[in-house]
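Minutes, project check-in

Agenda point 3 was the complex the collaborators sent over. CS summarized: two entities, 598 residues total, and the question is how they sit relative to each other. Sequences were read into the notes so everyone works from the same version.
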Amino acid sequence: MRVPHVLRSTFRNPVLRREARVRMRGWRAPALVTAYVGLLSSVAALIFYAFSRTEGPAAFAPELASIIFIALALVQLGLLVLAAPGLTAGAISGERERQTLDLLLVTHMSPFQVVIGKLGAAVGFALLLMFASLPVYGLLFLFGGFSLYRLFLTALIYVVTVLLLGSLGLYFSAVFKRTQAAVVTSYALAIGTMIASPILAIFVYQVFNLGPNWQAPTWGLILAYINPLFGLAAAAGPPMNEMLELFGPILKTPELQEAIWWKFCLTALAIMALLVWRTTVKITPLKNNSSV
Amino acid sequence: MLRVEKLQKSYGSFQAVKEVTFSVEPGSIFGFVGPNGAGKTTTMKVISTLLRPTAGQVFLGEVDVLRNPQQARRKMGYMPDFFGVYDDLKVYEYMEFYADCHEVEAAGRKRLIGDLLELVNLSQKQDAYVDGLSRGMKQRLCLARCLVHDPDLLILDEPASGLDPRARVEMREILLELKRMGKTILISSHILAELSEMCSHIGMINDGRMVVCGPVQEVQREAGARIMEVQVAGDPEAAAALARNVNGVRDVRLGDGGFRVVLEGEDQAAIDLLATLVRAGVPVIQYAEAKSKLEDVFMAITGGEG
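CS then shared the predicted structure for the full assembly.
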């Protein structure tokens, strides 16, 4: 079977290969993967320990598995949100600081390929962390309580989240000359949005609630569709999706609330495409808008 | 090979490059000379497709560099005035990375990289980390990187800056070897002595303007810095006094057993000088044109601004 050209050129991307080679060299990457899986395992073990102390030893305990699954899902999302902007915020500015960006731009690689290579390397490492954590989820299956479908959806949310936050870090990396400024701005925006969106939703309901027949304005949802936390809540299903009751005044049916996961994915991918395009424009030499 | 026509580059109200025009012949080493801030790097960045000029055109062979940058990049290798190396790669990996970026065929790549590392005397270092190389080695590695896609034109911005004398000599030898291999080289420097021994052509830029451009000897003559070395058997002071009165002689400097005469640059002045000395019965042992230093030329052209 022939591998599609786009995939072939992505995996042959020299920037992606170089980043992967350098990132996996030495003790740092294995140590990070070990720490990551260790943290998730510890969370699972602690909850299991607490449960077995109160309820006694359990063989089939779906309620325990679903609690551990929610905890792991939230911790994993938190770790990826913390990791993703950091993996890319120094990607372009670092090339500038090392004075290697010009050298890349005079090769046969297009600026788009450079940007995709950088983003691919960051996403690749985040995927490695996710795959490394699969055995922890595998153990949970022994207890029942959540489906493979839900696990797949949460994994999809993680990938989209990493793409969104990775492209955000990459964009600021191209905007700012210094890595430090790019890192601070990326984290401020990523974490700020996650905190601001539920606050905005509550604010909208409280301020605009004008009585029993009141219809909440739909723009209160805007930040829900770019918040990975709500995407995850919709993807993970019950009981985690209870947090979507926050949007009850607008999304009145469970189906509409469930749809948040795919709407989040589409919105995030659209924003990612926009950020990748702007990043590419930012680093392109001989821009057409310059005068000749 | 390379034609630059009426190139201009402005940053706001500041004009970094003002209507610079020059061409580089195939197989030549073109020295791009000027003081710091004269516009050398800006011009080279435009040629290398990294900057869009405010006005003007650049052609590499038949390729319009500004309209077809991708096509132009295949024909040129650019070495900026800084190292630009990934410290976390080994020397071979570094070369392989740029070979990948230039889409160099995988077959024969190992041999190509080996040959290039041998050319720049880094064969023994191919498994060493780039971080561990000396400054001179890093510069040579950058030069090898420029060659990985076999470009016709090399654009080298201050390749010997910050190098010790030995490393400078090594760099010069490599550039001369590249010339023998048929490469065309555009090299910049603010140190004129560095270029005088290897360049066939020279362009002097000052305050964004190309002040003079052409074959080195022609430039020296145009600048009026033609120098004749005269050795005499008798009293050099008397002969020097005679020389001072010849038309076209600017200056006479006495030396050990002879004197140096600075001429206007025309052949006639040199002919008149020798005729005057012979007619006066001065026993001339040697009468030869000395290579004037490019520093003298540059100072004469720019009026000492550099």
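Noted in discussion: Chain B touches chain A through 34 residues (CB under 8 Å).
Follow-up: revisit at the next meeting once the mutant set is ready.
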